[in-house]
Amino acid sequence: MRVFAYCAQSFAATTRAAAGVAPLTSPPLTGATFDPRWLAGYDLLYLDLHGQPGQPTWWGDEAVALTAAQIQTTDLTGAVVFAVNCHLADADSPMLDALLSAGARYVIGGDGRNWGGERALLGAPLLGQWFRRLLRVHVPPLLALRWAKARVQADLWAADAQERHDLAEAARDTLAFQAYYRRTS
Predict the structure, then answer these.
(1) What is the pTM of this model?
(2) Apex CA 123: angle with CA 121 and CA 126, to 5°?
(3) Which residues, including other chains, have CB under 8 Å from residue 112's CB and lie 6 or more apart?
């Protein structure tokens, strides 16, 4: 399975662990230096950039890292996208629309703020790691998402009381992630 990862530089460690590959980061990349053709030809795209409500851009730590216009110029046919990015699935999300318009088979993500760690895998990056591992052994994406959520839930309940309290908000957000796709007639 071919995996591509792109993230804010501050998320590099958790992105590497979740995606299983070394990510490209912003910085040093920006929207001006990122070539959207780099996204093509992968089975899984793992994205962990900063998103804002209703905006056609995702940010790295310092500057725009990727735009909806850039995404729409590439062919994502058949790719599964796992996006930790905040506000990906908000009601009016230009970035979700761009990914689906570019041909992504499924886009996995959540609305509002999405929680993850910069150093430890928790929340959305933990879900992403389990999701990727399941895809790698040929579990279909919708089933992989369901099983990955079950694993995150099990990890939460296996934690001690204090740790469970600390992880509860991240887990609640993560367990609301959904799969989005273009419906065809």
Answers:
(1) 0.93
(2) 45
(3) 86, 87, 90, 173
